[in-house]
Amino acid sequence: MSNPYKDLRWLLSGGVKDTIRQRNELKAQLAATQAELKKSQERVRLLGGNLSEHPLPFMMLVALPKSASAYLVEVLRRGLNIAYKEVACGYFPQDVMDYRKLNQFSAGNTLAKAHLDANPINMQLLKLHCPRMVLHLRDPRQALLSMVHHLKHCWDTGELQYIQSWIAPAPPPAVLQGGLSGAIDWHLAHFLPNMLEWTERWLAHAESGESPRVLITHYHDLRENTQAVIERILAFYEIPAWAFTPTDVPKDWSVHFRKGELEEWREVFNRAQQEICSDLMADYPRVNRLYGSEKINQRTVTDNSENAISHQLVNGSHQRR
């Protein structure tokens, strides 16, 4: 026999409220499960239960180096459960698609990423095999700084052959062994003009409206709201949102992430280096409109030697981005 006084104490202590709360939580969990089941059933119905019969479209991502494109690819690949395959040779600033590999993409369910430049061969192949593409960009000044750290990391880990195999001109050992400020100077002279030309030509194509159609995405948007960028890409390729399952992709060296900052270059580049960037960007009107050539912020400029030393102390060893 129950104790009426004990039952009364239970009621007064909030037992009824706890029971109602637990019931409501179970009802919410059941509703969520039913909604997921309905989505799964709809996908099976539309896809016929077989992606080989109803494939997702071939997705092409063309990206500026050091724009977190490796991270973006991994998020898309995992979320859509599709294959990633190489489509180009992998050089920069000039690269070319391998037409012998393109047939494997016609079946769909495949994602490719490359640092392709907008040369005539690439444009011809893209028109034939890829009517839509994503162009992923980043402020070239920050991308340059990230490249400096990336290549210094490669040097520190004994990957000189890797450096010399895909980028031209490749920085000589003296640059890779030297200080940060000297490495930035070298890349401003040899790498930044190539990045600006590469970006300007792609922006010109995007403005033209010609095939392939281009969706432009940006590093800063990916950093601030990855899901929003994914949703734009899915809509561009006419892939329903429910076909994508969010997954946790760590932002670390495995996907070439270092720090993920947006304007680190303002604190690292000295005054002369910032002025070089502004002067060079002024020659590329589309890039300049997109990223600006703002006046030098005097408060962020420090002496070369102090700048390099303090930055190295903050960052520690160089890591990929």
Summarize the structure.
By secondary structure, the chain is an alpha/beta fold. It has helices at 4-12, 15-47, 69-80, 120-129, 140-156, 160-166, 173-177, 180-190, 192-208, 219-224, 226-236, 265-268, 271-281, 285-291, 304-315; strands spanning 59-63, 83-84, 110-114, 132-137, 213-218. The protein has a single domain, classed as Rossmann fold (3-Layer(aba) Sandwich), CATH 3.40.50.
What does the model show?
The protein has helices spanning 4-12, 15-47, 69-80, 120-129, 140-156, 160-166, 173-177, 180-190, 192-208, 219-224, 226-236, 265-268, 271-281, 285-291, 304-315, and strands at residues 59-63, 83-84, 110-114, 132-137, 213-218. It is of the alpha/beta class. The protein has a single domain, classed as P-loop containing nucleotide triphosphate hydrolases (Rossmann fold, 3-Layer(aba) Sandwich), CATH 3.40.50.300. Helix 5 crosses helix 8. The chain is globular. 31% of the residues are buried. Residues 44-52 and 295-321 have low confidence and may be disordered.
Keywords:
321 residues, alpha/beta, Rossmann fold, five-stranded parallel β-sheet, 15 helices, 54% helix, disordered C terminus
Tell me the strand percentage band.
Answer: 5-15%
Number of helices: 15
- Terminal residue distance: 69 Å
CATH architecture: 3-Layer(aba) Sandwich
The CATH superfamily appears as P-loop containing nucleotide triphosphate hydrolases
What's the oligomerization state?
A: single chain
CATH class term:
Alpha Beta
